[in-house]
Amino acid sequence: MTDPNQRLTAWQIKTDTGRVKETLDALRPEMLVHYKAAVASLCEMETKARQTLNAAGVHTIMYVPYLSYARQLYKLSRQQGISGESFALVAEVLLEKWAARGLRSDVLTAIRTQVFDASAPTP
Predict the structure, then answer these.
(1) Cα–Cα dist 35/6, whole Å
(2) Structural domain count of the chain
(3) Across residues 24-37, what is the average pLDDT?
(4) Is the distance from CB of 119 to CB of 88 less than 8 angstroms?
(5) Which residues constitute the domain of residue 67?
(6) N or C: which end of the chain has fewer CB within 10 A?
(7) Distance between CA atoms of 54 and 99, rounded to whole angstroms?
(8) Residue 109 falls within a domain, yes or no?
(9) Residues 75 and 90: beta-carbon distance below 8 Å
């Protein structure tokens, strides 16, 4: 479409609020099912991470950065679908990043292995 008027008309039709509402109303039930599943999975992962932190004797004030590390691993494994050796390599890079920020490597390794069942990458 090289005609500006044609583009404007197409945009107005596409963004008509009544049409957008109808589309979203039709999609909402399925979106809700997917969202519930995602939240349940995320909460399960965070619970496992908290149990790992508790077992390692980490003070609760330090949970936030460890949970950020766990959420990054979760995003890579679940949302971006990275697995296997690729996931092990990325997890190792994240472990080194968070260890450089002052977190304990043994606790980060425990989160990686116990929560995500990922071992260290093979050399």
Answers:
(1) 37
(2) 1
(3) 94
(4) yes
(5) 19-115
(6) C
(7) 18
(8) yes
(9) no
Summarize pLDDT for 42-65 with one digit per residue, the tens.
Answer: 999 999 999 999 999 999 999 999
Q: Quickly count: other Cβ atoms within 10 Å of residue 17's Cβ.
A: 7
The whole-angstrom separation of Cα 54 and Cα 22 is 47
DSSP annotation string for 3-44: -HHHHHHHHHHHT-HHHHHHHHHHHHHHHHHHHHHHHHHHHH
- Give the confidence band of 1 by pLDDT, cuts at 50, 70, 90: low
**CATH (domain of 76):** 1.20.58
The pLDDT tens digits for 69-78 are: 999 999 998 8
Contacts of 24 (CB under 8 A, 6+ apart): none
**Helix or strand holding residue 107 (H, E):** helix 105-110
Q: Closest by alpha carbon to 103, among 54, 65, 73? A: 65
